[in-house]
Amino acid sequence: MTTSSDPRALARLLLDLCRMRKLTIATAESCTGGLVAGALTDIPGSSDVVDRGFITYSNDAKRAMLGVNASTLENFGAVSRETAMAMAVGALESADVDLAVAITGIAGPGGATPGKPVGLVHFAAAARDGRIVDREKRFGAVGRTEVRRLAVIEALRLLTELARGPKPAVKRPRATAHRSRPRAARKPRQSAGTRRRTSRP
């Protein structure tokens, strides 16, 4: 797990990891206004990993650029888990990349609604192989600049987690290997049993 809180260090780590695994990235940002894409492209040579960034500040932009359904926005709101996930999937499909991250939140100082305070940010990241993860953070009323900075850090961490790859991929061969052993052991037992039965008469 990435514990660094330095956006530049996180961005460099993510880019190096993506280069090693030949992965490309797109971002879909609302409250961060392109800061995640900015953190990545601030590193020289990032063009071999970063494909594009969507700044979808309004609901119209979320619908037009990322294909977020109007019903999702109406039922759950722009700042919600459901909208963040739809943004991530929309960015993945529109950009034809390997990984996409989405951020939507309330940076403040205004914009809070009942149940959705200032500092609430929803994140989602989607991978081409079908994996998708989401996260909710409540940073509190720590100031607009700080909320956005913390959101960038969390988005980079989320992308790094997905870039490291699915964990089950390593376990599957082991599971099939264990399964094959009992099957191989059962066959001789059955054949031995039939021989004993036939030899009794």
Give a summary of the structure in a few sentences.
The chain is of the alpha/beta class and 201 residues long.
Strand content: 15-25%
**Oligomer status:** single chain
In order across it, which strands form the biggest sheet?
A: 2-1-3-4-5
Q: Please outline the major beta sheet.
A: 5 strands, mixed
Distance between termini?
A: 67 Å
How would the global form be characterised? globular
Tell me the helix content: 40-55%
Number of strands: 5
Overall pLDDT score? 87
What does this structure look like?
With 201 residues, the chain is of the alpha/beta class. The protein contains 7 helices and 5 strands, in the order H-E-H-E-H-H-H-E-E-E-H-H. Strands 2-1-3-4-5 form a 5-stranded mixed beta sheet, sandwiched between helices. Helix 2 links the parallel strand 1 and strand 2. The termini are far apart. The C terminus is likely disordered.
